[in-house]
Design a protein that fits this description.
By secondary structure, this protein is of the alpha+beta class. Helices cover about 60% and strands about 15% of the residues.
């Protein structure tokens, strides 16, 4: 499972830090290159500026002037700190955690001095409070870093829970039994097809039970989904009609491991299995500028539109997918799922990372 971008060392590294003081941090404390981090930091600083301006303002108009004045120095200083922290991301990764905090605080102090200097040069401040500005910058930087670490620690159990839930929904017993029964039926008449089916099943379980990495490529996810659908194609035959629309330019986009296959499995479960006539399944990928769009669309059985529709799922798998994408891409991802005429469409948009 993908670890949050804003996170300190892994558990094994953390225990190593306790036993070996010279151990290095395995991840940067704060990843200022994430758009979510940028937005949260700017909003936090502006909120503090707005509240602080209330203490020296006697009217709403005066408050607005005071807030705008302080923002003229605070906002450039905040952006400078974010740019510097983003640029130093790789060197910071090689430092111990304590040094990462120290460097972040120093960058905060320097950035605050820069903002104070802007206000002094433009004549807004008659005398510049250099020392107070430096302390305030270091303090704000420390608070932002601490908030990032706390947020990451709160996400770590969610990531672990999502991984366990994903595995439970991934390895469904009836899918295993159906696959084995189909393979047994093919052993005598079509042994080569039975062998291929069991190889695909073995690969699916190997991927599910392997030690997961931080992320994989869309091409890897498509290859795994193809194995799963090859098994289901043997089971359902002509009832399962699959269409692949794949954009090679989207293949390098990063996804949490084992993310696409549960979506395809959901489409089989709710689209093909309940329908005597089967269903159509379409998997589409497309690169649009800096984003990659992934769609899984399945037609719905006729009973969905009758007076007594088939019972729907609880949405656990979809919520799991959405949460895992948010852990990996934060605010840069988009996720939607719902009815589209007589089909069900899941749409994902993620950054196209090469």
């Amino acid at each position: 499972m993908r670890k949050p971008a804003i996170l300190s060392a892994t558990p094994s590294a953390a225990s190593s830090d306790r036993t070996r003081p010279s151990a290095r941090a395995q991840a940067v404390l704060f990843d200022a290159c994430q758009i979510g981090v940028v937005l949260r930091t700017v909003v936090f600083v502006e909120a503090v500026v707005g509240v602080a301006a209330m203490f020296v303002s006697g009217s709403p108009g005066e408050w607005l002037v005071q807030a705008a004045t302080v923002t003229g120095g605070a906002l450039p200083a905040t952006l400078l700190w974010l740019v510097a922290a983003c640029g130093l991301k790789k060197p910071l990764r090689r430092l111990p955690v304590a040094w990462q905090y120290a460097v972040g605080a120093v960058l905060g102090a320097i950035s605050a001095l820069y903002g104070c200097g802007l206000l002094r040069l433009t004549g807004v401040l008659g005398s510049a409070p250099w020392f107070a500005s430096a302390l305030a910058g270091a303090f704000f930087a420390g608070m932002v870093m601490a908030a990032m670490v706390l947020r990451a620690r709160g996400q770590t159990p969610a990531a672990t829970t999502a991984r366990l839930e994903e595995l439970q929904s991934r390895i469904r017993p009836h899918f295993l039994f159906n696959t084995l029964n189909s393979a047994i039926a093919l052993v005598r008449e079509e042994p080569a097809k039975a062998e291929t089916m069991l190889e695909d099943l073995s690969e699916l379980f190997r991927q599910a039970l392997a030690d997961p990495g931080e992320s994989g490529t869309l091409a890897d996810e498509v290859a795994l989904a193809e194995r799963y659908l090859a098994i289901e194609q043997v089971r359902f035959g002509e009832r399962l009609r699959i269409r692949w629309d794949l954009d090679a330019a989207a293949s390098d986009a990063r996804l949490p491991p084992l993310l696409l296959q549960p979506l395809v499995e959901n489409a089989i479960k709710h689209g093909v299995e309940p329908s005597p006539d089967g269903a159509r399944l379409r998997i589409r990928t497309e690169r649009r500028g800096s984003m990659v769009v992934i769609e899984v669309v399945n037609s719905l059985p006729p009973l969905r539109w009758a007076d007594e529709p088939l019972p729907r799922g609880h949405g656990i798998a979809l919520a799991n997918v959405r949460d895992r994408l948010r852990l990996l891409h934060d605010m840069r991802m988009q996720f939607s799922a719902g009815m589209d005429q007589k089909s069900y469409r899941v749409r994902i948009a993620i950054p196209a990372e090469s």
